[in-house]
Amino acid sequence: MCSVGLSSSGVLASIIRICSLVAFGTVGLYPVSGAELDDTRQLFIKGEYTKAIRACEQAIKDREAEEEWRRILTRSQLAIGQYEEALKSVGAGMERYPSSIHLRLLAREVYLYNGESDRAREVLREINTLAGTRMWAYQDAANLVTLGRAALLLGADARRVLEQFFDRAKRSDPKNRDVYLASGQLSLDKNDYQLASKTFAEGLKKFPDDPDLHFGLAQAFAPSDRRRMLESVEATLEANPNHAAAHLLLADHLIDGEEYEEAEKSITKAVEVNPSLPRAWAYRSVMAHLKNDSEAETKARDSALKFWKTNPEVDHLIGRKLSQKYRFTEGAARQRQVLRFDAAYLPARIQLAQDLLRLGQETEGWGLADDVHRDDAYDVTAYNLVTLQETMSKFATLTNEHFILRLSAKEAPIWGKEALALLERARTNLCAKYGLELTQPTIVEIFPEQKDFGVRTFGMPGNPGYLGVCFGSVITANSPASSIGHSANWQAVLWHEFCHVVTLQLTRNKMPRWLSEGISVFEELQENPTWGQAMTPRYREMILGKDFVPIGELSAAFLAPKTDEHLQFAYYESCLAVEFLVERFGIGSLRKILLDLGQGIEINDAIAKHTAPLADIEKDFAKFAKERAEKLAPDLGFEKPAHGLAVAGDVEAGLPMDSNNFYVLTREAKKLLSAKKWNEAKAPLEKLLKAFPSHTGTDNPYVLLAVAHRNLGEANQEFEVMSKLAALDSDDLDAYQRVMELAFAATNWSAVLENAERFLAVNPLLAAPHRYGSRASEALGKTEQAIDAYTKLLLLDPPDPADAHFRLARLLHKEKKPEAKRHVLQALEEAPRFREAHRLLLDIHHQETNAPLRAPQFE
């Protein structure tokens, strides 16, 4: 909703007062429509605006009495951009029906599109006056909805409007369509998408074919579920092919996916309905900006503002889309322009707050979010940000010359120093590699609660699946504490995100998503071959099947993937594309492409300039990817057996017992293990390992073979197999844990320490790897490392704190550190009869006083 700046408690007093009377009054009669009016109403809802206009004009000519004829006429004229005609129609309507608040609220929009902003403000005051003097006339559901909408424009509290106008109207008439549209729109305006989806879905139960309700549901799904959004858009356009807003929402989605030609087609369909539609021209301005066409950008914006010169929605939309393209500086500038038009326009204020926070301009960003929350307690994004700021005020901050690292005070002493060192190494390596000199510190914020990461990153809790996000000079990431289900290597995550810092700043945030993600995954693999992604049987199937995506469509693959697996495949294929470009044309060509993108050159032109035309690149890349897929374990077959055929040798499957089929060998091994035929299971598993040693996914042969060795009591062989898996997989905590256990039992301290460090790179917040690592470091004579490990272990509530305190005290005493006495006393506090601790305390006392040693006495 667009505010015209009229907001005072005095003006609102009369319009709110009606709420206290509705519960006691009788419900007013709303005109019962005849068949012809109902038919015309349906013409409008289905988008047949010209037919609706003709029907209304004829009815008015025939002196039909119902006011709604005038409203449908005016709304139809607005829908097709006949703003001057709409002004005449609504003016005549108000003259004919001087007490109609419906026509007056409609007139406000008409006046704005005819440059009469003063009259728009005045008509709201007229509604307020009518509500105060003729409250008995506006107590039915339809009038309550109109009064609620007017109250919002006048600055009323949104929750109060929802409860006292819209909810009350719904109770009065559950079959009133506008109740659901108004309530749902209010929730959308306040970023309460969950309530919005619930409201529109409730309306659709009563009006299942209503395009506007389907469209409302599409808007509610847009921030979190693109697939469901697209389904709702499809339903909208099926019911109303001329639904301009639905065409534009589809264009919005296509712009996000960098499918600009298809986006323009959707915009054109909206413009065919209304050639003057401001939002349509605003989207064209966005696309012109992304194409670095400043002349077309300005021209499109001027067209968007042709009829309503200070329309705040235009620059807000342009700025929001630019920010979604990571052009936060340009996006923030657009929101500031909106606020010059209308300083109270809340959508621009909260968007600007988020833009500033993503730019690292925290003082102004947090302050603005707080201001929005104070002015509008219902805005969900503002509330989330204010709550998050309070949480983050308790974070610890670690800094050096190049980074500002924030993480929870509990986690900071455990892994903050290591995170800062990793980031510094990434900065040194990647900035040198890509020729970038960073001029400001990078802010890195790590959240132990996934919901807080979601709020900081997206403005909303949720959005699971993201490990980290980079905005250019600000990185947000999930802590290992927030991992649910599947752990991730935090070192790989931070390396990946800092690579985004380099490429985004090098290109001034002007790069397609596939290239940005592809380079970051590629650089993970360059730093550590176990990071990033590798070819799998499933990826092989997707490349050789129907899931392979041309480079020109790769960015769109991230938006509405069929499954989580398809999303991960988009990352993998993007990395593969970067690997192809570097292998074929060299890292120098890639750097030149990035520099050209920073100068505003389009990606296809930049690629063609430094490699080859995109058509040739796509053809050669498809061949490259196919060859890579076919080279995966070439001695194995990957034909899937018929569904339900579980074992090798089944005649129906057509796969003999000595098959080299990957799936058959895996199934046969699992069947033998289930039957506890441990020795027999070794054969297919060893065959798999020999042919496919890089396989570390689900049911990999290393884990299955280790099960066989464990049950046969073959500890050395189990250690060997699990050690190989641990060396290949960057986040297999179970493998690291088992190798540590086996190595500890065999006093293989080097292997214990190596796998403890691997474990800590995934989750440093568990006691076990610190316990194993401290013992191994101590045994290997790495005193400083052992002291650090024991110190961290004690922060994690270890199962045997007395032993940890004692061992730490012993090392500190060896280094002549005064802290030794405190830790040995703590060991004795935990275990008063700890003989070795008593001896150590005597030794410390002797060192302090030069007193003779005396053996402790125990009863």
Portion of residues within helices: 55-70%
Number of strands: 5
Number of helical stretches of at least 4 residues: 43
- Strand proportion: under 5%
CATH homologous superfamily assignment of the domain at 651-849: Tetratricopeptide repeat domain
Which CATH first-tier class of the domain at 651-849 would you pick?
Mainly Alpha
Q: What shape does the CA trace take?
A: globular
CATH architecture of the domain at 651-849: Alpha Horseshoe
Largest sheet: spatial strand order: 1-2-3-5-4
Assembly state (oligomeric): single chain
Biggest beta sheet attributes: 5 strands, mixed
The computed structural class is mainly alpha
Mean pLDDT: 92
Task: Give the termini distance in whole angstroms.
Answer: 82 Å
Please name the CATH topology of the domain at 651-849.
Serine Threonine Protein Phosphatase 5, Tetratricopeptide repeat
* Rg result: 33 Å
Low-confidence stretches: 1-13, 18-33, 645-655
